[in-house]
Each structure stands twice: as structure tokens, then as C-alpha cells.
């Protein structure tokens, strides 16, 4: 068996008071128990990315290096106006080759489980040659959070996270052979 895969759990929101770190840590907790890959939280906010075309901040190179080091991704996606956040779209646009021929899973949340945002993301990932897996855990702001702010996931979601990770790791390993 070859060396362990590196899978980044990308937090899609950057606003003050965001809940994405709670969701990302929960996914990482489940993932780490599997022992099949190196899982790490990748926080877009850490890179202080400018908008595309508005300067060459050092964060852009650091962001691309981080993506380069990863074999696959789990996107923590929140629904903003029926789509992904502007921060996530900008971060996606700030890299190109570093995304290509890798796999991704999506964990989304919102009033309808973030489904509309997740479907938008799938279209974007197709353009970047990222293979997005089928299983897609959807978390409800109404039943998986208290007061829309404290993450209390229902037990049923854990099984779906593992199914999604099975698919992400299998495809990440397969795609590594063609890079
Ligand atoms: C600008 C904005 C637009 C939003 N639009 C939607 C929406 O269209 N559908 C939805 O289900 N939730 C919507 N929400 C609610 C967010 O999904 C919810 O606040 C979630 O916690 C945001 O993720 P975050 O806390 O990680 O930033 C919106 C929130 C914001 C800030």
C-alpha cells in the first residue's frame, strides 16, 4: 500500500461568528478515527486572500501550495443566497492546476441542508476537473443546530460522513495515479 493520502477539510465561510469550524472539526473527528488518510482543516480565512485581480498577496502562493499538497478535499459548504459563499468562490478561482485530477466530497448546511449551494459547487468543480462524489451529507439549520449557532448533529449523519469519505479516499487514490 502506498503512502497515506492527504485530505483537506476546507471551511467555506470566513465571516465573524461562522459555524463552519464546528462542522469541520466534527467531520475531522469522524475522519481521524478511520486511520486511512491524513485529514486536516484548511481555513480559507488563514490565507487573507485578496479578490482575484486585486493584487498579489503572499496568501495566494501559500493557498496554492496548500492545495498542491492535498490529494482530495471535503468542502464544508454553507448556503448564502442559494449558492456558495463569495469567499469560497474567490478561493476556488485563485487556483487552477492545484485542483485538477483530485476528488472531493461535500458536507453542506442551510435551511434546506445547503443543497442548492452544494449543487452550484458541483458545477464549479466539474470545470476544475475535481471529481465530486455522490454521497453528500446535508445538515439542517433547524434540526442539527441549536439556535442556528450551536452544532448538535443528529446521529444519523455520522454514517453518511463515513460513506462520503469512503468514496473520497477511493477516488483520491485512483486519481493520484494519473497526476
Ligand atoms: C448572506 C447570507 C445569505 C444567506 N442565504 C441563505 C440561503 O439562501 N439559504 C439558506 O438556507 N441559508 C441562508 N443563509 C443562512 C446561512 O446558511 C447560515 O447563517 C449559516 O450558518 C452560514 O454559515 P456560516 O455560519 O458558516 O457562515 C444565509 C446567510 C447569510 C449570511
Question: What keywords describe this structure?
Answer:
alpha/beta, Rossmann fold, two-stranded antiparallel sheet, 5 helices, binds flavin mononucleotide, FMN_Rdtase-like_dom, NAD(P)H-dep_reductase, oxidoreductase activity, Flavoprotein-like_sf
Q: What structural class is derived from the secondary structure elements?
A: alpha/beta
Cα end-to-end separation: 18 Å
Would you state the CATH class?
Alpha Beta
Number of strands: 8
Radius of gyration: 15 Å
Strand content: 15-25%
What is the CATH T-level topology? Answer: Rossmann fold
Task: Provide the list of bound ligands, each named once.
Answer: flavin mononucleotide
CATH superfamily: Flavodoxin domain
* Number of individual domains: 1
Largest sheet: 6 strands, parallel
Helix content: 25-40%
Give the overall form. globular
Number of helices: 5
CATH architectural category:
3-Layer(aba) Sandwich
List the helices and strands and how they pair.
Layout: E1 5-11, H1 20-32, E2 37-43, H2 58-68, E3 72-78, H3 86-93, E4 102-110, H4 115-127, E5 130-132, E6 138-140, E7 145-146, E8 150-151, H5 156-176
The protein binds flavin mononucleotide (FMN).
Residues 13, 15, 18-20, 78-82, 110-112, 141 line the site of flavin mononucleotide (FMN).
InterPro entries: Flavoprotein-like_sf (IPR029039), FMN_Rdtase-like_dom (IPR005025), NAD(P)H-dep_reductase (IPR050712)
Domain NADPH-dependent FMN reductase-like: 6-135
Protein name: FMN reductase
Amino acid at each position: 500500500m502506498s503512502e497515506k493520502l492527504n485530505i483537506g477539510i476546507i471551511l467555506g465561510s470566513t465571516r465573524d461568528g461562522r459555524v463552519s469550524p464546528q462542522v469541520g472539526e466534527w467531520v475531522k473527528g469522524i475522519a481521524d478515527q478511520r486511520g486511512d488518510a491524513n485529514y486536516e482543516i484548511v481555513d480559507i480565512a488563514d490565507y487573507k486572500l485578496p479578490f482575484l485581480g486585486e493584487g498579489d498577496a503572499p496568501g495566494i502562493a501559500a493557498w496554492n501550495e496548500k492545495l498542491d499538497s492535498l490529494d482530495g478535499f471535503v468542502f464544508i459548504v454553507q448556503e448564502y443566497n442559494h449558492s456558495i459563499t463569495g469567499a469560497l468562490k474567490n478561493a476556488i478561482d485563485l487556483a487552477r492546476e492545484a485542483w485538477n485530477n483530485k476528488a472531493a466530497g461535500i458536507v453542506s448546511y442551510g435551511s434546506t441542508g445547503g443543497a442548492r449551494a452544494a449543487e452550484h459547487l458541483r458545477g464549479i468543480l466539474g470545470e476544475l476537473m475535481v471529481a465530486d462524489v455522490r454521497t453528500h451529507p446535508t445538515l439542517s439549520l433547524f434540526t442539527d443546530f441549536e439556535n442556528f449557532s450551536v452544532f448538535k448533529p443528529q446521529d444519523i449523519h455520522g454514517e453518511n460522513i463515513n460513506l462520503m469519505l469512503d468514496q473520497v479516499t477511493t477516488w483520491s487514490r485512483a486519481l493520484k495515479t494519473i497526476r
